[in-house]
């Protein structure tokens, strides 16, 4: 089919606008990347298009930070384990609150949803965590966040959109709750679970405040908190006495790059599930 | 069958919830008070220190820590924090009665936290331990002055609850923390025009400098003056609060509402309301920025940019006049990296028509960082010994520079840094990790530049010794010295500031009474909202109109009552603290 010149012009304009829009989205990431690989002095002067004075000096500095490798292990572990627990616990609870013969089903669901609107505040949260011995414990990173009301709502809505006959037929064949959940519900919930996994992983990877409040053990420091502190360590007094050799901007951008890289890698793989998962349940016919 | 399934579902759900809440440490893992035997043997103390150095986490095992262990039998298990983080952490720690053995108390609202802990019986009164366990503090007049100040200004019942660390000064005399820094190379190029006052001469010289250099090395626009007015209230107005006060030898006693100032030379309160007096430091600073705006030498971005954007411009040589002294190193680094080694900033001495003094040395008599000891600490005597260990001049030097022999040696009775020491990067994580240099800085009893009375040299040899200052001298410094005819920067500044160079302000005015607190908060936002309008006035007539409107508007916030309250408290403290100031001045050898 031949495209009319007028349509072609419109297409070009639309293409240009979309390209510009894509550029606006991508440029901040590109900016972070080129600055991370540029020499600290050049970063101070401003690097906008191509890396200048290409170097790994900034990464060297960041990776020389004490405990950094322990931090990576802790952060990766909390992300992997925390996300798995997130998916499993939210998935199971989300499914259970759809099971009509569960006693107090509606109340359980309402109590979970209520936590979206009312939070306990810092001090009660802190006291509770100390009380249940989560202080200086890895469990602090993965268990309190294992159930999130938002994910439960997301999963419940998705499970409700599935045909009831799926569960009924399995039940008729003698399958118990766990069998139905693991063998029937989980496989068909892949899109929404992938969506929860991405949300959960990003949240886990970026979290550091629980570390700041409750973890003093050097071996349990998360990468994010170490990097946060490293930025703060370029203090005013150090600058006055000329005792700091780092360029905070270069280090800040390098840290941002290191922080977003894993998430950038995860998104493309999960994207097809992600879009499907977040859209499902939004329209009911 | 159906009932069994139902039960199993409920049981599973319950098990899941239980799993969330039951797994954790065993209670014994988290005993927060000091552990160990304590009978002369080594004990471990948890110390929450105002330091974010990545090496300062967990049990310390570097060279400095080993000396501490050997001297006082303490292994420090460090918990790093900052002023801002601690303001969130401390209420949680207090609420759960979970304070570490030794802990930092934030600088903001210090008394509020001490009150909270005192009411809960969570903070230890240290008076009874000093005689036996704090020989260094008891024998040092500066530490004694600090203790007296803490008892009179940071105590609900006159007892000692906080020990102030980082007493003395950070300043070495090369330059002040805040001042009138100008591009000396351009000033020289202009033929050293006369600079007698801040309000006109300085602006005219800056305008001429901007004409001389209106682009940086990268071809970007250069302005003489800039600011970070786009930042939040309390920080965006930093220049207005501090630049002139420091430069003319005054201290703002109420930086929130900028109503009251004191004189560094006499330590007396300036009895005028700086908000309503058009000749006050506040209004002169506002007027100065307005004039700069009218002359086109104030970067127009100043009204929207934040501090980091301001810093980026400073670091690329886009301003010719800077107030924060801590920015100077970065711009000098930029000049060096671009081969412009002859360029540089120096701080102007006091302007003769305005004043005869300025703040070259800021002395923290009471100590800048407060530490308390938990009432739950099993070994309070060890906790006090630890704070006392840091309060010896010799130990302070060990913390900054390591033990004698490594990086420094005594030459003719004077601690002298080895030449190669001044070339190393003390921020190198590896050096910090193994040697422990400067990683416990906020716990050290004395600031970098404090002079050890025994040897007459600064505590931190790396940053503040004569050799270190000599190494930091640039062409511009040398030219400035030859222009004024002096040999060293401290000597020059002291000679050109006969009125005084040391700020020993110790006022702690606390909070306003409740009925005035809300009004003062509203007053501060009123000031922040309107002072920049005055700076942006197009001409003098508009400025005066806006200034009058501004001053008229202050009545709505009962400004006179607030002023009277502040003045009353300040005058009372002025009298009460006189003996302590004299004691500290005597200890420092200041007349």
TrEMBL record, chain A:
Which CDD domains does the annotation name? TM_PBP2
List the Pfam families hit by this protein, alphabetically: BPD_transp_1
Q: SUPFAM superfamilies from the entry?
A: MetI-like
Predominant cellular place of this UniProt entry's protein: membrane
- What keywords are assigned to this protein? Cell membrane, Membrane, Transmembrane, Transmembrane helix, Transport
Record-linked PROSITE patterns:
ABC_TM1
Listed transmembrane segments? 12-33, 67-95, 107-126, 138-159, 180-203, 249-270
UniProt topology in membrane = Multi-pass membrane protein
Give the GO cellular component terms, alphabetically: plasma membrane
Keyword Lipid metabolism in record: no
* Segments forming domain ABC transmembrane type-1: 72-270
The question of whether Transmembrane is a record keyword is answered with yes
The protein's name is Carbohydrate ABC transporter permease
Natural source organism: Massiliimalia timonensis
Starting at the broadest rank, the lineage of the source organism is: Bacteria, Bacillati, Bacillota, Clostridia, Eubacteriales
TrEMBL record, chain B:
Q: Does the keyword Signal apply?
A: yes
This one is known as Extracellular solute-binding protein
Which compartments does it reside in? Cell envelope
Per UniProt, which keywords does this protein have? Coiled coil, Signal, Transport
Q: Which InterPro entries match?
A: Bact_solute-bd_prot1 (IPR050490), SBP (IPR006059)
Print the organism lineage. Answer: Bacteria, Bacillati, Bacillota, Clostridia, Eubacteriales
List where this protein forms a coiled coil: 195-222
Q: What cellular component terms from Gene Ontology apply here?
A: cell envelope
Superkingdom of this protein's organism: Bacteria
Q: Which family does it belong to?
A: Belongs to the bacterial solute-binding protein 1 family.
Signal peptide, first to last residue: 1-24
């Amino acid at each position: 089919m031949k495209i009319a010149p007028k349509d072609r012009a419109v297409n070009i304009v639309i293409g240009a606008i979309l390209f510009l829009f894509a550029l606006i989205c991508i440029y901040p990431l590109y900016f972070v990347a080129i600055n991370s690989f540029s020499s600290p002095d050049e970063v101070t002067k401003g690097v906008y298009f191509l890396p200048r004075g290409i170097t790994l000096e900034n990464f060297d500095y960041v990776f020389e930070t004490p405990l950094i490798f322990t931090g990576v292990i802790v952060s990766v572990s909390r992300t992997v384990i925390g996300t798995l627990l997130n998916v499993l616990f939210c998935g199971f609870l989300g499914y259970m609150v759809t099971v009509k013969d569960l006693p107090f089903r509606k109340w359980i669901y309402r109590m979970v949803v209520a936590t979206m609107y009312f939070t306990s505040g810092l001090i009660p949260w802190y006291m509770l965590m100390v009380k249940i011995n989560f202080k200086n414990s890895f469990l602090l990173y993965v268990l309190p966040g294992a159930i999130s009301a938002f994910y439960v709502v997301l999963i419940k809505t998705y499970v409700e959109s599935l045909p009831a006959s799926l569960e009924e037929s399995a039940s008729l064949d003698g399958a118990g709750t766990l069998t139905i959940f693991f063998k029937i519900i989980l496989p068909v919930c892949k899109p929404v679970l992938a969506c929860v996994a991405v949300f959960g992983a990003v949240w886990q990877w970026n979290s550091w405040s629980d570390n700041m409040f409750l973890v003093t053990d050097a071996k349990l420091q998360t990468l994010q908190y170490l990097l946060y502190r490293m930025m703060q360590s370029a203090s005013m007094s150090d600058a006055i006495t000329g005792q700091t050799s780092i360029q905070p901007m270069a280090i800040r951008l390098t840290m941002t790059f290191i922080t977003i890289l894993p998430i950038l890698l995860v998104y493309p793989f999960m994207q097809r599930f992600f879009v499907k998962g977040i859209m499902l349940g939004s329209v009911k016919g | 069958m159906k009932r069994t399934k139902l039960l199993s579902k409920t049981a599973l759900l319950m098990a899941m919830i239980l799993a969330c809440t039951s797994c954790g440490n065993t209670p014994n893992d988290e005993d927060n008070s000091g552990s160990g035997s304590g009978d002369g043997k080594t004990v471990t103390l948890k110390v929450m220190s105002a330091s974010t150095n990545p090496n300062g986490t967990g049990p310390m095992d570097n060279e400095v820590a080993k000396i501490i262990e050997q001297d006082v039998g303490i292994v420090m298990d460090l918990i790093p924090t900052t002023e801002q983080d601690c303001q969130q952490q401390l209420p949680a720690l207090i609420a759960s009665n979970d304070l570490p053995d030794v802990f930092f108390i934030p600088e903001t609202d210090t008394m509020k936290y001490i009150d909270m802990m005192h009411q809960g019986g969570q903070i230890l009164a240290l008076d009874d331990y000093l005689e036996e366990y704090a020989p260094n503090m008891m024998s040092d007049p500066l530490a004694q002055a600090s203790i007296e100040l803490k008892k009179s200004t940071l105590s609900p019942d006159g007892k000692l609850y906080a020990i102030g660390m980082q007493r003395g000064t950070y300043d070495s005399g090369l330059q002040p923390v805040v001042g009138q820094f100008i591009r000396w190379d351009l000033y020289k190029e202009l033929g050293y025009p006369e600079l007698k006052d801040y309000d006109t001469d300085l602006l005219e010289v800056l305008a001429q400098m901007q004409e001389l250099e209106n682009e940086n090395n990268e071809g970007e626009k250069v302005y003489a003056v800039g600011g970070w007015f786009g930042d939040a209230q309390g920080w965006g107005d930093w220049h207005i609060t501090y630049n002139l006060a420091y430069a003319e030898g005054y201290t703002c006693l109420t930086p929130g509402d900028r109503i009251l100032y004191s004189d560094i030379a006499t330590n007396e309160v300036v009895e005028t309301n700086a908000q309503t007096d058009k000749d006050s430091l506040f209004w002169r600073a506002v007027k100065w920025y307005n004039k700069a705006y009218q002359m086109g030498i104030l970067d127009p971005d100043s009204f929207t940019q934040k501090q980091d954007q301001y810093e980026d411009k400073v670091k690329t040589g886009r301003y010719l006049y800077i107030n924060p002294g801590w920015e100077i190193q970065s711009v000098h680094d930029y000049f060096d990296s671009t081969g412009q080694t002859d360029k540089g900033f120096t701080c102007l001495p006091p302007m003769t028509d305005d004043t005869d003094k300025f703040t070259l040395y800021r002395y923290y008599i009471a100590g800048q960082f407060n530490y308390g000891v938990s009432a739950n600490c099993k070994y309070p005597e060890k906790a006090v010994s630890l704070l006392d260990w840091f309060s010896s001049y010799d130990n302070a030097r060990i913390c900054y520079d390591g033990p004698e022999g490594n990086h420094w040696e005594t030459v003719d009775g004077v601690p002298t840094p080895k030449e190669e020491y001044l070339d190393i990067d003390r921020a190198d994580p590896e050096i910090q990790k193994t040697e422990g240099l400067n990683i416990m800085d906020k716990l050290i009893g004395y600031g970098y530049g404090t002079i050890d009375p025994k040897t007459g040299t600064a505590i931190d040899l790396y940053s503040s010794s004569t050799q270190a200052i000599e190494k930091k001298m640039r062409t511009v410094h040398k030219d400035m010295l030859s222009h004024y005819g002096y040999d060293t920067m401290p000597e020059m500044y002291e000679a050109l500031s006969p009125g005084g160079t040391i700020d020993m302000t110790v006022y702690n005015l606390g909070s306003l009474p409740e009925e005035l607190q809300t009004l003062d908060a509203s007053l501060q936002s009123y000031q922040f909202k309107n002072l920049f309008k005055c700076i942006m006035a197009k001409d003098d007539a508009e400025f005066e109109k806006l200034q009058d409107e501004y001053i008229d508007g202050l009545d709505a916030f009962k400004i006179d009552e607030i002023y009277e309250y502040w003045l009353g408290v300040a005058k009372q403290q002025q009298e009460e603290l006189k003996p302590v100031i004299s004691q500290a001045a005597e200890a420092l050898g200041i007349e």
